[in-house]
UniProtKB/TrEMBL annotation:
DEAD-box RNA helicase Q domain boundaries: 25-53
Protein's organism: Petrolisthes manimaculis
Family (UniProt): Belongs to the DEAD box helicase family. DDX54/DBP10 subfamily.
Name of the protein: RNA helicase
Compositionally biased tracts (Basic and acidic residues): 1-8
Helicase ATP-binding domain residues: 56-228
Cellular localization per UniProt: Nucleus, Nucleolus
Residue window of motif Q motif: 25-53
Domain of life: Eukaryota
Length: 234
């Protein structure tokens, strides 16, 4: 058995290492481009949260990710930061390059707010496609070449059908609160969206829980996803 003094020394070493990691583990060390880093700092984020620290580098590498973490852990920036990095700046020629699928209007609008704040210096344009809003307004918004579309599944399927909208330039897809997407009965719409995506694309799935249906969906739609879970950590 280790003596008390030895245990104290070990504790001290662990504490020092933690401190050092905290210092070197800022957003500044993630290799982010100027406009993206500025947006994060302007929003007042000084250090990445644990889920951001774990997911951002892996998503930046281009891997598909299934990430599980509780509400309030900072999942929005976990996908927005690498998404901005991937898209870089506004492009009027390519059309929609990123899709963010959310289960509810409220969450989608919240995500739009984060997109505007964190993406302030990127010049990227976002549009929302949500049930409950006028569909004409959404047609108009989609004609203005948004880089990012934040949508609820039902309305996205409806609008893209009506506009004969192809997703051929979509390279990045986020399913936020994915467990909710299934609980609210969007399985059919999600499959429909999956079918229309280009074969080469990056997909990330964020969820608080990982029910069986979600595992099946991830197996069908994601390519060798990296599973990142913080639910068991303290
Ligand atoms: P989740 O999607 O996991 O529920 P959010 O992305 O909504 O979490 O973030 C929860 C809150 O924490 C928000 O107010 C957000 O601005 C804040 N937040 C996120 N990341 C950071 C960070 N790195 N530093 C400080 N605050 C943060
Ligand atoms: Mg969230």
């Amino acid at each position: 058995h280790a003596s008390e003094a030895e245990l104290d020394t070990r504790k001290l070493i662990v504490e020092r290492r933690k401190k050092k990691n905290r210092k070197s583990g800022g957003f500044q060390c993630m290799g982010l481009s100027g406009p993206v880093l500025r947006g994060v700092l302007r929003k007042g984020y000084k250090l990445p949260t644990p889920i951001q620290r774990k997911t951002i580098p892996v998503i930046l590498e281009g891997k598909d990710v299934v990430a599980m973490a509780r509400t309030g852990s900072g999942k929005t920036a976990s996908f927005l930061v690498p998404l901005f990095e991937k898209l870089q700046s506004h492009s009027a020629r390519t059309g929609i390059r990123a899709l963010i699928i959310a289960p509810t209007r409220e969450l989608a609008l919240q995500t739009l707010k984060f997109t505007k704040e964190l993406g302030k210096f990127t010049g990227l344009r976002a549009a929302v496609v949500l049930g409950g809003d006028s569909i004409e307004g959404q047609f108009a918004a989609l004609h203005e070449n948004p880089d990012i579309v934040i949508a609820t599944p039902g309305r996205l399927v409806h609008v893209s059908f009506e506009m004969n909208l192809k997703f051929q330039n979509v390279q990045f897809v986020v399913f936020d609160e994915a467990d909710q997407l299934f609980e609210l009965g969007f399985a059919e719409q999600l499959d429909d969206i999956l079918k229309r995506l280009p074969e080469v694309r990056q997909m990330v799935l964020f969820s608080a829980t990982l029910p069986k249906m979600l595992v099946e969906f991830a197996k069908a739609g994601l390519f060798e996803p990296v599973l990142i879970r913080l639910d068991t950590e303290h």
